[in-house]
Amino acid sequence: MTPAPLPRLLLAVAAGGAVGAVARYAATELVADGSGFPWTTFAINVSGSTLLAALLLLPLARRSAVWAAALGPGVLGGYTTFSATSEQTRAFLADGRAGLALAYVVGTLAACLVAVNLVGLLAPPLPAEDEL
């Protein structure tokens, strides 16, 4: 793969980020977290981690730096949300719900790591000629 010029990469990340952020916003509007456990944010982060781990299974992402940038840090970076997880954890702590805050942080990290590892275990080997 030949490197793309920096302006093209930045535009790809920006455009992808807009798509990902809109997708995240739409998901939270369709299925609001509510006052209990923030399941929507949790699902967004786990699904985004899974998709990021699987990104190189797409030949397009392996062969094009622009598409890899648009889909990885762009779409999936805009879709996943560490800041919302951090704020929700802070709110749990402020409400005196330290156990839930800990469960949320540890559970999110554990679920994301399990998802990423499952992709690594289940994904077929990449063709040598397509690797970055």
Structural class of the helices, strands and pairings?
mainly alpha
Count of distinct strands: 0
State mean pLDDT (0 to 100 scale): 91
User: Spans with pLDDT under 50 lasting ≥5 residues?
Assistant: none
Approximate helicity band:
over 70%
Q: Looking at the structure, what is the overall shape?
A: globular
Q: What order do the SSEs take from the amino end to the carboxyl end, as H and E?
A: HHHHHH
Strand share of the residues? under 5%
Radius of gyration: 17 Å
Main β sheet profile: none
Report the end-to-end length measured between terminal Cα atoms: 7 Å
Number of helices: 6
Give a verbal description of the structure.
The protein is an all-alpha fold. 75% of the residues lie in helices and 0% in strands. It is built from six helices and no strands. The longest helix is centred in the first third of the chain and has 25 residues, at 6-30.
Summarize the topology.
Elements: H1 6-30, H2 39-54, H3 59-63, H4 65-79, H5 82-94, H6 98-122
Helix pairs in contact: 1-4, 2-4, 2-6, 5-6
